[in-house]
Design goal:
This is Holliday junction resolvasome, helicase subunit. The chain is mostly helical and 103 residues long. It has a domain of 60 residues. It is globular.
């Protein structure tokens, strides 16, 4: 990601979170806790799956900053891993991307 795109994504992210900071924090805490609980309690979670989720941070930042318009391949892979490991998790792609960033 070029420095200009990264700066733009960071600026959009900061502007979008200022308007609803408390709901963002609440959502991030809730989804983050659910993901952490799922990954920690899952005995079949491989380190490869965890690496896929961690590698998606940059794509997740772009996704959140663009309000879902920019979907990277790393994020798509991470969302598939998360949904496969926690099928009962009721979260939108945006909420999961925010949780990946908070991790």
């Amino acid at each position: 990601m070029t420095p200009i795109r990264l700066f733009g994504a960071a600026a959009l992210l900061s502007l979008s979170t200022m308007a609803s900071a408390s709901s963002f924090i609440g959502t991030t805490d809730m989804i983050g806790s659910a993901l952490i609980g799922t990954t920690e309690s899952s005995t079949d979670m491989s380190s490869g799956d965890d690496k896929i989720v961690l590698a998606a941070r940059e794509d997740a930042a772009s996704f959140v900053a663009s309000r879902g318009d920019i979907r990277g391949a790393h994020l798509e892979s991470a969302l598939q891993v998360i949904r496969a490991k926690a099928p009962s998790l009721q979260a939108t792609d945006l909420e999961l991307a925010e949780a990946i960033l908070a991790r």
